[in-house]
Design a protein that fits this description.
Layout (H helix, E strand, L loop, with lengths): L4 E5 L3 H13 L3 E6 L2 H11 L3 E5 L8 H12 L3 E5 L4 H7 L7 E3 L4 H28 L3 H10 L3 E6 L4 E4 L1 H7 L4 H5 L7 H12 L4 E8 L15 E11 L9 E8 L1 H13 L11 H18 L3 E8 L2 H8 L1 H18 L5 E4 L4 E6 L7 H18 L8 E8 L7 H17 L8
Parallel strand pairs: 1-2, 1-3, 3-4, 4-5
Antiparallel strand pairs: 6-7, 6-10, 8-9, 9-10, 11-13, 11-14, 12-13
Helix pairs in contact: 2-3, 5-6, 12-13, 13-14
Length: 432
C-alpha cells in the first residue's frame, strides 16, 4: 500500500478525528487538521501534504469547493471532497472541479481507504506522466519505452487527427488486439469536438473532457465479440511539437475509464431526494439514508438519536395569516435544525409540519443537551425575526441501541409518540 502525507480540512471534530485515525491506521502521515479553509490555505505552504481531504461544507467565508480551486491553482495539491449531500447546489458546483474523488458521510472505513489508495495511485501515475512528457523532449527511444509501459491508456494522434500509435493499456481498455482494430472505433473523430480541441491547444492549454462511449454504436465489423455497454472516458489532450530528438507533430492523448466515478456521482444525485420548499430530505430519501446509517451503526457499535419534531400551531398560522407566512415559519424551523445539528446528521421533512432527524455518532450527548440546544435556537430565531408568527416546536427523542433489532420506522414511531407527550405537556395555546 502506498503511504502519503495528508491534511484534513473538516470543521466537525469527531469526523476529523475519525479520518485521522483511519489514515494513521493504514500507515499514512497526517500533517494536521484544519477547521476552516482559511486555516488550511495558511498552513499548506509549510506542511506541504501530498493530498487534502476537504469537507465541502465548512465554517467561514470560503467553502471547500472554492478552497480546492485556490489550492489547485497555487499549490497543485490534489483534493478529495468529503460530503454529506447537504447542499445540492454545492454538489453540482463540486462536480465541475477535477477532484480525486468523493468520500460520503457518514464515513465508511473501507470507502475511505479505497478512495485514498486510488487517489495516491493516481497522483503517482500523474507524476510519472509528467516525467514521461519531459522525457519526450530528450529521446524518442525513451518515450517509446515509457509509452508502452504506462498503466494509463495513451495514444498519439497526428496534427490531422489520424491515430498513429496506442499503448497496450489503451487497447486493453477497448478490448482491441491491434492498432488496426482500435482504429475502427470512432474515437475523437467528431468535427465539433476536434474544433474545440484545436482552439484550446492552439493557446498552449491542455484540454480535458469527459465523454460517454457506447460500444453498441461502434459497428466495428469485427469477427469476434467486442466489449458491450457504455463507459465514461476522461480524456486529456496535450500538444506534442517536434524538436531535435522528436519526430512527431501532433497530440498525446491520455484516456482513462471513469465509469465508477460517474456511477458514484449518479448515486449521489439519486440519494439526494430533497423536499423542494425546505431543501431537506423528503420521507423516501430520509428512510433510505437512515437505514444505511443504522447498518453502519450496528457494525461499529455506534450510538445515535432519532428525533421527531412538530411545528406547534402551523395550521392556525396558515388559516389566519396565509400559507406564505406558514412557509416562512417552516423555513425558520429548518434554520433551527441546521443550527442545532451537525452537517453529518440526516434531516428530513416527514410531512406538512413534521420533521425527523437522525443524529449519527452521537455518543456522549444527552437528550437534555439536545433539547436545550433546540430551544435555545428557537428562542434565537424568534428574537431575530420580525412578524406576528412565532416559531414553536414539540419533539420526541429516542436513543438508538446498536444491539437492538429496531428499524428506521420503529424509531420514528417511538419518537413520534414521545413528541405527542411533549406537546401535551405544553400550554394549550401552543398546541395544534
Amino acid at each position: 500500500m502506498t503511504q502519503g502525507r495528508f491534511m484534513i480540512v473538516e470543521d466537525e471534530g469527531i469526523v476529523a478525528r475519525d479520518i485521522k485515525h483511519i489514515l494513521e491506521e493504514n500507515g499514512h502521515d497526517i500533517t494536521g487538521i484544519a477547521y476552516s479553509a482559511d486555516e488550511a490555505i495558511h498552513r499548506i505552504e509549510h506542511d506541504r501534504p501530498d493530498m487534502i481531504l476537504m469537507d465541502i461544507m465548512l465554517n467561514g467565508e470560503i467553502n471547500g469547493i472554492d478552497a480546492s480551486r485556490l489550492i489547485s491553482e497555487k499549490f497543485e495539491i490534489p483534493v478529495v471532497f468529503v460530503t454529506a449531500y447537504s447542499d445540492k447546489p454545492l454538489i453540482e458546483k463540486a462536480k465541475k472541479i477535477s477532484t480525486y474523488g468523493y468520500i460520503l458521510k457518514p464515513l465508511k472505513k473501507k470507502e475511505l481507504e479505497i478512495t485514498v489508495e486510488m487517489g495516491l495511485a493516481r497522483l503517482e501515475l500523474e507524476k510519472k506522466l509528467k516525467e514521461k512528457e519531459r522525457m519526450l523532449r530528450h529521446s524518442e527511444e525513451k518515450f517509446r519505452t515509457v509509452f508502452e509501459s504506462s498503466p494509463i491508456g495513451l495514444a498519439l494522434y497526428s496534427d490531422n487527427w489520424d491515430l498513429i500509435n496506442a499503448n497496450r493499456s489503451l487497447m486493453d481498455l477497448f478490448g482491441a488486439e491491434s492498432l488496426e482494430e482500435l482504429m475502427d472505433y470512432r474515437l475523437l473523430t467528431d468535427p465539433d469536438v476536434i474544433h474545440i480541441f484545436k482552439e484550446k491547444l492552439a493557446s498552449g492549454e491542455q484540454f480535458r473532457i469527459e465523454i460517454p462511449f457506447d460500444f453498441e454504436l461502434q459497428n466495428t465489423g469485427w469477427n469476434k465479440p467486442s466489449k458491450n455497454g457504455m463507459i465514461f472516458l476522461e480524456i486529456l489532450v496535450k500538444t506534442v511539437k517536434s524538436d531535435g530528438n522528436w519526430a512527431y507533430n501532433g497530440f498525446l492523448i491520455q484516456i482513462q475509464d471513469v465509469t465508477d466515478r460517474k456511477e458514484h456521482e449518479e448515486n449521489l444525485r439519486e440519494l439526494s431526494i430533497m423536499d423542494v420548499l425546505t431543501e431537506t430530505y423528503n420521507r423516501h430519501g430520509f428512510i433510505n439514508l437512515s437505514a444505511k446509517q443504522i447498518d453502519i451503526a450496528r457494525r461499529t457499535n455506534s450510538g445515535m438519536y432519532m428525533l421527531f419534531l412538530d411545528l406547534d400551531g402551523l395550521k392556525g398560522i396558515n388559516d389566519s395569516m396565509g400559507h406564505k407566512t406558514g412557509d416562512s415559519v417552516l423555513i425558520s424551523a429548518v434554520d433551527v435544525l441546521h443550527r442545532t445539528f451537525r452537517s453529518s446528521d440526516i434531516i428530513g421533512r416527514w410531512g406538512g409540519d413534521e420533521f425527523v432527524v437522525l443524529m449519527v455518532n452521537a455518543g456522549g450527548i444527552s437528550c437534555e443537551e439536545i433539547s436545550g440546544r433546540l430551544q435555545k435556537n428557537i428562542d434565537l430565531i424568534n428574537s431575530s425575526t420580525a412578524g406576528p408568527a412565532r416559531l414553536s416546536m414539540s419533539w420526541g427523542i429516542i436513543n438508538f441501541d446498536p444491539a437492538s433489532e429496531v428499524t428506521v420506522e420503529d424509531l420514528i414511531r417511538e419518537a413520534d409518540e414521545q413528541m405527542y407527550r411533549h406537546k401535551a405537556s405544553k400550554k394549550p395555546a401552543n398546541m395544534n
